[in-house]
């Protein structure tokens, strides 16, 4: 396969892993390379919100690695990605089981003093938060942050991302001011580093939502508009987080009875999601539901009913299991 492949394989591999790879026939190597491409495709699909297809790609990759490489298979990264996808699909129990397996694989393959360990601890903290095990989640976040600080310092984008996840824990626990302080610290880190504008946009969205929760509607509006502009520049086109920010500002404007502006933003959010996702998707159903609520408050009841029905159909087709509220609204 040439010297470039040899250099790629030699980096960071044990003698056992190298031996397992050298013994592979060329046709098996081609399957491995195709599997690695499947891993990258899975990450891309996950970021686009295509969780089911991303999950299938990752499972195929893990099975192929195990079949061809046996003890030499490196599973830490794909298991971590699989756990993240299951989390995104709402399958928290399976996600936690896979995340724990991923942490064990990381410790076995790379040792305890490693960035992937910090990421695995962070993933487990997010799942503990989803299960409302807040004390466990806070302890896991603390260990993850301490390891990140030791490895990389506390000024990089990875540290800011970990702070954002810690803020989500505080928000769900009801510690709004503590959540806002942590998010503000992460925002300062990213602004000073000038890196990852897409993450900065998400943090601004989170900060604006916290301001709204604390009752500062004007401050929230200003920050949310900044988030929308930042995400627009970062992605240069349609993106799920951009659509989410538009929808959040639409909710705020509807609450403040700026109804025409709310309808405009809700429609823009839905249109962006429709361009992103061809088939049924929970995010599209939520956006359609948001638009229906705007139309209802504006008194356009026929159009509102139609939008509610479309949202219900899409919610049921996406299999998200959250259609009960929509059905009650229609009734």
* Rg over alpha carbons: 22 Å
DSSP helix fraction = over 70%
Instruction: Pick out the low-confidence regions.
Output: 1-10
Mean pLDDT: 82
Query: Which shape, going by the Cα principal axes?
Result: globular
Summing up helix and strand content along with how strands pair, one would put the structural category as mainly alpha
Question: How many strands in all?
Answer: 0
* Biggest sheet details: none
* Fraction of residues in β-strands: under 5%
Order of helices and strands: HHHHHHHHHHHHHHHHH
| N-to-C CA distance | 64 Å
Number of helices: 17
Explained architecture:
It is a single chain. The protein is an all-alpha fold and 331 residues long. It is built from 17 helices and no strands. The chain has helices at residues 3-10, 15-22, 26-47, 51-69, 76-88, 92-110, 115-130, 134-152, 157-173, 176-193, 197-213, 217-235, 240-255, 259-276, 282-297, 301-318, 324-330. The longest helix is centred in the N-terminal third of the chain and has 22 residues, at 26-47. It is globular. The termini are far apart. The model is unreliable at 1-10 (pLDDT under 50).
């Amino acid at each position: 396969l040439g010297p470039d492949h040899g250099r790629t394989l030699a980096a960071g591999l044990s003698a056992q892993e190298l031996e397992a790879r050298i013994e592979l026939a060329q046709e098996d190597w081609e399957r491995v390379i195709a599997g690695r491409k499947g891993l990258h495709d899975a990450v891309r699909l996950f970021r686009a919100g295509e969780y089911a297809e991303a999950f299938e790609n990752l499972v195929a990759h893990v099975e192929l690695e195990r079949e061809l490489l046996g003890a030499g298979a490196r599973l830490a990264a794909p298991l971590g990605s699989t756990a993240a996808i299951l989390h995104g699909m709402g399958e928290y129990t399976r996600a936690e089981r896979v995340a724990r397996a991923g942490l064990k694989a990381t410790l076995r393959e790379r040792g305890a003093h490693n960035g992937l360990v910090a990421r695995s601890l962070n993933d487990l903290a997010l799942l503990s938060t989803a299960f409302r095990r807040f004390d466990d989640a806070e302890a896991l976040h603390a260990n993850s942050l301490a390891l990140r600080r030791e490895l990389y310092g506390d000024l990089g984008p990875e540290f800011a991302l970990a702070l954002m996840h810690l803020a989500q824990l505080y928000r769900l626990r009801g510690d709004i001011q503590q959540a806002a302080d942590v998010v503000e610290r992460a925002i300062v880190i990213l602004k000073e580093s000038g890196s990852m504008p897409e993450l900065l946009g998400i943090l601004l969205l989170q900060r604006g939502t916290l301001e709204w929760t604390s009752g500062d509607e004007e401050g929230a509006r200003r920050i949310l508009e900044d988030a929308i502009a930042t995400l627009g520049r970062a992605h240069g086109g349609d993106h799920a987080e951009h659509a989410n920010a538009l929808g959040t500002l639409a909710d705020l404007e509807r609450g403040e009875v700026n109804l025409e502006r709310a309808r405009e933003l809700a429609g823009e959010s839905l249109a962006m999601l429709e361009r992103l996702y061809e088939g049924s998707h929970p995010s599209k159903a939520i956006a359609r539901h948001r638009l229906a609520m705007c139309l209802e408050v504006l008194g356009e009841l026929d159009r509102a009913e139609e939008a509610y029905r479309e949202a219900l159909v899409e919610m049921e087709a996406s299999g998200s299991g959250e259609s009960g509220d929509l059905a009650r609204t229609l009734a």
